[in-house]
Structures are given as C-alpha cells and as structure tokens.
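Hey, can you fold this?
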Amino acid sequence: MAATAATDDRAFVVVPEPADWLAPLLDVLREAGPVEVFAPWVLPDAVVTLGGRVGFVRRRLGHGLPGARGRGWFTAAELVARALARGKTARTLANRVHIRALADAAAAFHLSRRPAPSLVLAPSLAARRTFSRSRAAGSTCLLIEDLPDFDTLVDGLDRLASGLPEATFLRNHRPRARDHARQRAERWQADVIAVRGRASWHRLGGTASRVLLPRLASSVRHVQGSEIAFAGPPLARAGSTHLPALLGALPERVVRVQPGPVAEPAALLDHPRVRVDRSLDGVGVVLSLGPLESYPSRVAGALERGIPVVGTAASTGLLDRASVSCVDPDDVAGVADAIERALRRDAPVPRAWTPPLTLQQYLIGVRAGHRRLGCAGAG
C-alpha cells in the first residue's frame, strides 16, 4: 500500500514488550527519518533506578526510545498477568498473547487521535487492529514476525509429544484457534514481513514480500574450550532425548544445558557430565538439535564468538546453511562425529545468512519512490 498525502514521514513502531530486535531496528529506521515508539510498558527512570535489581523493572527503561511513554494501567495488567501465571510456562505464554492484543488495541486508539505515519511496524499478535487503522489511513504496514508460525509449531509439538509421552509439557500449551487466525490475518494485512532468518524466509516463500529483521553486528573475544553447549528450548522439545546415548558416545566430554520446565524428564539431566550453565566461555561447539523452527540465543552467541555449530537446518536459521555442520538429531553416531570434528576445528566457522533483501535496502527503495516490493503480502 502506497502512503498517501495524509501521512507524515515518521515511522511508528508498536513494541508490546521489551524486545531484543528493537535496538537494531531503531538504528536502521533513524537513518530513514523520524521515529515514534509506542511502548506502554516503559517505567519512569526513577522507578527503574530504585528497582533496578528486579529483572521485570530493569528491562522497562525507556531511555533512548523516541516518543515512548508508559501507561500505568498497562503495567498493572502485566503484573496481574504474571501473578495469575504463577511461573507456569503454559499460562505465561498464554498471557503474553493477551498482553500483545492489549498493546495492539491501545496503539490503534493512539493512532486514531494523531496524523497517520507513513510506515507502521508491529510484531506478531500485536498488529491486527493497528494495521487495520493504518491501512485505512494510507500507511505502509510492516509485520515483524518474531513469534513461531503457530500452525507449524503445533504440528511439530504433536509429533514430538506422540514419541515422548513422558514429556508432558509438550502438550500443556496450544495457541487458541483465534490466535492462529489472527496470525494469518496480520500477514494478509502487511505490505511486507520482516523475518528473523533463513527458516522463516523459506517458510513464507512467495506468499508474502519479505525483508530480514536487522541484528546488531558484534563480535566477542572467545577462548576456545572443549565443552559442548546445548542451544535452544528445553531438552525434550529440542529433540535431544538421545542425550544420555550421546554422552556415552562422547567419553569425558561435558555438556552444558539451559534450565527448562519443571516437567522436563529428570533422566535427561541425570548425568555427572551434564551441567546447567548459560555461559559460552570455554565452549568448543554449540549443539542445536531442535527439529522445529527456532532462533536460539546461543546460536547467535556462536556467530558472535566464531564457535562452530552442529545442528539442524530448522534451528540454525540465523546462519548460512553452508557454515553449519547439519545433522540428523536421531543419528547419535553422526552427531557425535560432527561434534568431535568441530572440537578439532575441522568444521566451518559460522556466518550470518544473507537474504535477497534487507530492511535497509527496502527503506532506501521506499524513500526513493521506487518500491522493490509490491503489495503481495497484503493479498
């Protein structure tokens, strides 16, 4: 959708919760023109200073977010949702969807009282009402797809759960039918979709115009070690129920895992060479065996540090596939062999996946008046 004369030249970004993608996105948008951030979760600087030791408070600093203004009622809704969830993974995920819908409705109301921006950006499940209002006003709509595709996710979890009856948490959360429908509707409304990596790009295929969501380009000095760091979601969900067998095939190797739900099968962690540790210091290879599309932070960490990655194509979408030692997670011997080769440095160094079109290139085209993308994403 082309912007009309009724729109101004600013970009309007809906941010329903603190997000890792926000800082690099703002860096790109600022180069193209003025930006306004709608972040109702922002707390006053004084509150963040006083309560900085609390993670919930510390992440709600709005410094550097242009136009961001907190809403007390929104923070109250967040706190009520957290209290009702009581730390339960399923309730926490469900409440996250509700909070995004609340931010979407608030952003749409905010836009109804102001001149329409030329570009509106909103993440998954926080875009439907905002895009409806913005499209009517002539704004270009860009969807930030920062959540998994629900249809693919549910099918994948059902397959895993059928083979892992002991992993009860695989069945304890499913998005509602209306959330599936909202996710599809937002894609239809968007003029272009910003994806996180290779897996999302290929999943959407030719059904939508796509750009790559920017990431902070950084590198971290790394001291090579011999330990194996497991990346991604909880062990069973990531297809690593072969961990005991894998450790048997890797004598004296230590595996680091991240904490998972209480319902995680205890036998997976019942080994003297398995440690719960989030750090990558001293790690020689990152192991990402998730069979479902995911973008683990440890894979991003491996990219920054130059640590070899052994994994599946689905869970290493941030990386160029040629720079990953791709394996079948059910082939224990093959995975162990790939790990040993990586520890001997006989494996490729991870490289970031380069898309056909980045967000920076898209914005340059918009500003020049020569749209590289049409309205295919809007149906």
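Oh, and this one too while you're at it.
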Amino acid sequence: MAKAKKGDAKAKKGDAKARNVDKVMQFIEKELKINPKATAKELQQKAKAVSEAVGKLSVRQFHAKYPLQVRRKLALKKPRRAAPKKPRRAAPKARAARGQVNREAIRNTLMTFARDVSAAEGKSETIAVLGKLDNYINAIIRATR
C-alpha cells in the first residue's frame, strides 16, 4: 500500500477551503439581493451558520473578503446609464478670449504712445500724436490675436 503524499493532503484541504469560500460567497450574494443595505456585521453573523471560519475573521477582514467582492461583482452586472451628453461650446477664436494675450507687445505699444505724447513740445505736436491714436489701437488689437 502506497503512502499518501503531503501534497495530496494539502490539495484536498485547499479544495475544501475553496468550496467553503464559494458557499459563503453564494450565501452573501443571496443575502445582498434580499437586503442590499445589510451591514457587514449582520452578514457575518448569518454567514457563521454556513462556515465556522467566518467567525474567526474580524468584521473588517470579513467585509473585505466577502461582501465587498460580491458587491463589486453585482455592480459590474448592472448596466450603467449613459450620462446625458452636454452640448459642446464653440471654441473662442481670439487669443484674448482664451486668456492668451501678448502682454509684452501691448506694453510696448502703450510705452511708445506715452513716449510720443511726452516728446510732443507743443499743442500741434500733441494733437498729431493723438491723431495717430488709431494706429496704436490697431497695434494693440494685433497683439491680442
């Protein structure tokens, strides 16, 4: 008669544990379908009838091993509703609308305007600089594009 190998005994023990875990998982799944708001503590008390090993686990360990896994599995089975599509807004064309302004170009244009005004010695020269005001404004607008 041949001796039983150690590996065979471990394999049988492992199979028994796996069947035990499957029984508990099925029990938990059935209970959660009946009462989805059941707490881990309640489920653990009921699962002790299925497997004594469940009683040795802390509530936290039990929750991680059984109810959490079952809830994840059940959540994957439920089809998710598609979120309502939001209409897309048209992208603004000007850089100024997007907040991308060439501040340095605007600053240089304004500094040039200030220098020209301060360099004007008389009323006629000041009026000539102010007459070119549209040119300065156009330069600022180009800097915002």
